[in-house]
Amino acid sequence: MVTQSPEVAGFTWIIGDSPKLHLLATFILLAGIRLIARLTQRYICNLPPGPRGLPLIGDVIHIADQEWLASPQRRDDYGEVMYISALGTGMLIINSQRVAVDLLEKRSTIYSSRPHYISAGDFMTKNLSFTLTPHGDLLRHFRRVVAEGFSKSAVQQFHPIQNREAIVLALALIKSPSTLENHFHRHAWSIMLSVDYHLPPVESKDDLYEIEGHVRRFLQEIHPGTRLVEYFPWLRYVPNRFAKWKRNSQYWFVQDSHMFQRLLGKVVDDLANGIDRPSFGATIIKTQSKHGLSELEQAWLAGDTLAAGGETTSTTLHWWILAMLVYPNVQARAHAELDEVVGRDHPPTFADVPFLPYIRAMVKETVRWAPTVPLGVPHASTVDDQYEGMFIPKGTVCLQNMRVLNFDPEVFGSNAAEFDPSRYLDEKGQVKVLMRGREEGHVSFGFGRRVCPGRHVAEGTLAIDFATLLWAMRFERPEGSWGELDVRTLVQSGLTAHPVPFECKVVPRFTEAETLLNEGLSMYE
Ligand code: HEM
């Protein structure tokens, strides 16, 4: 049930109940006097400052992301949708699967665009970034190519890469468990570079300098509140000389285009020399006559899938380790399954995965439970619409409150907030379909025409990672750790959210594990 008219829900939420405070705070916010606005925000509205201290909707979303908004309590407080209107941008925050499906899937012709970003879209990526591409022909072409290159059957060509990298990760964790996050990072980017361009694994952080720089700049540009031009579009016409942001964005478009063209160029050269190795880049080039994308569009398409897959996968692994520490009984059950199905004389391979239902259920449960992209990637509507008595204006930005949607007790039961892979198993212990028409069993991969095209790659990586790591080791809290681990707080970094840092001890499960991992690795050299 939608309990409040959107406007009322929005403003009650931002500023509080008092009409005087509302007027005062609105005036000061709009006046844009940064210092006064920040004080107002802090002491009158009681909101902490945003990442850049800008008193715009960015701040609201910033704090909301982290804890407040992602609490299932929000649905009880505000109903299935909340609407915020600030500086002319309408924002719909969706708190129910029913509404998300009604709008983003059943009305996907209206709700499949992206918000228009002047800096990140028009200048920094010239609207070639797949993730920001508005609804239209280019999006259709992009989606057709990814549907082919990342289909359920096509992603099997990446299994050897994923299997090898899972072993490398396991060995790295055994050798130096203290830098868990760095290992996940290197691992996820290695897989993506290989999936996209068949490049060798990343050796050091320097190899990631350019691509990480691109992702960081991109996420910063689209973060609400970073660029005033997004709220005052006439600023785009300020001459370059007086607009550093514009000069920078134009500069980075050229640099990033070079990087993506160089990366894809290697695949072009290989194919020209008769070397046809599995990669998404190779699929793009070989299907060019079907999709008709230009060289630059192809380079950006591959580059964008690279950028979209690295951080999300590495963050998911980080949340998963936290779950392993908080739920040791789940870890023990996975160990038992691996001992029974795989045994202890070789590390798991993809051939084992179909016989590991608990591990496969754990993949679903991790992606459901871990709010990697807590508000989803925003969709935007392209025409005015009416929904259950509400008027939703054209251009409304639709955020999906993932933790609330994935913790819906009507779908996932009363223990929805717990990490319990067995919710995905039937009475025979086999993986069951929990949500009709949604094989993955959660909504973390998004909706409708924009659903994550890399989901089969991600699921493959997670399945073999979980199997290999749990086969070889146990994750424990170090002796002397005290207090409960924090599974609730979200540490925001761009669109993704990490858990609060925690310590973890890695214990090999049996003495031969390391030797067998090394032997397993030699099969992929
Ligand atoms: C666990 C890991 C991942 C999660 C949780 C995730 C989640 C998401 C979400 C929520 C969206 C937005 C969907 C929407 O707008 O409704 C998305 C889009 C996207 N994802 Fe993923 N993703 C993951 C891994 C990957 C991987 C491995 C790749 C590449 C192989 C990838 C490529 C993309 C691309 C290109 C888009 C943009 C699609 C579009 O705008 O139409 N993702 N992802």
UniProtKB/TrEMBL annotation:
GO MF terms, alphabetically ordered:
heme binding; iron ion binding; monooxygenase activity; oxidoreductase activity, acting on paired donors, with incorporation or reduction of molecular oxygen
Q: In which pathway does it act?
A: Secondary metabolite biosynthesis
The record's annotation in CDD domains points to: CYP64-like
Cofactor(s) required, per the database record: heme
**What UniProt keywords apply to this chain's record, in alphabetical order?**
Heme, Iron, Metal-binding, Monooxygenase, Oxidoreductase
Q: Which domain of life is it from?
A: Eukaryota
- A Pfam family hit: p450
- Where is heme bound in this sequence? 452
Give the PANTHER family listed for this entry.
P450, PUTATIVE (EUROFUNG)-RELATED, P450, PUTATIVE (EUROFUNG)-RELATED-RELATED
Query: Which protein family is named in the record?
Result: Belongs to the cytochrome P450 family.
Q: What is this protein called?
A: Cytochrome P450
